[in-house]
Write the structure tokens for this entry.
Amino acid sequence: MLNLLTEPLTFGFMRDALFIATSLGILCSVVGSYLIVQRQGILGDVIAHAVLPGLAIAMFLGVDIFLGAFVSGTFSTFVIAWIESHSRVKIDAAMALVFSGFLALGIMLISVLKSRVDLHHFLFGDILGVTTDDVWRTLIITVITLLLVKFCYKELLFYTFDPLGAQASGLPINLIQFGLTAAITLTIIASMQAVGVVLVISLLIGPGVTAYLLVKELHQMMFLGSVIGIIGSVGGLYLSYYQNVPSGASIVLVICGLFLLALFFSPSQGILTRPRTNKNRSGRVLQRVSSVKRK
């Protein structure tokens, strides 16, 4: 059993991949928790696809592709907010339009600029091909994001659950919103290396929503989600190593499997294990109504 755990560690690429998987398990869970409680989980998918134009332009200009991806992904959220605030279009429709528009623009730019963006790598990721620079970049993003969340937790909590109240109390909600958008975009950019844009939403939302079924407080959700994210990411990598299957898909499937376990067996929210008090109480009320009618 011990040999099964240690054998992959003899390879440098697996050590780098496991390090990034652990970092992303924590990072995605913390950032994704805010998306979940704000009911904007699909925003992560929109940003993930909106980075493609930035990748194409950055590669054409010869600058860091992660800088281009960050600018493009962040800009897409401002486009969504601008459409919503200047028209009757609802946010879900604005997200759908921006999602498809930025993706189409990215594909067009790749063709026109003769960009060398690897679409297969972009769509499905390649965590086993990470470099030392990728490891350090992911570590820096994770540390900075966690520190910002720690020091601004109360303000973020207030804004997340009551943005109007936060604005009325004088909090800089525009700055907070930009900070959250930046954190989401950086998280997605880091996660693309692992699972690609097709599966990144599962890595971003899966651990947090699994924890949501098990705990009630936001900080508990973040902590438990991080544990679930680490287990899912590392477990998916080991599954990929021993079964010779795609690593990104393996990570997402393990995370989805953990979600299904929580969905069915959560002590308070599980479909098969949730308390039946409400159902029993409803049954007793119906029995009383029936007995009164008979009398």
Notes: The chain is about 80% helix and 0% strand. The CA atoms of residues 262 and 279 lie 21 Å apart. The longest helix spans residues 173-212.
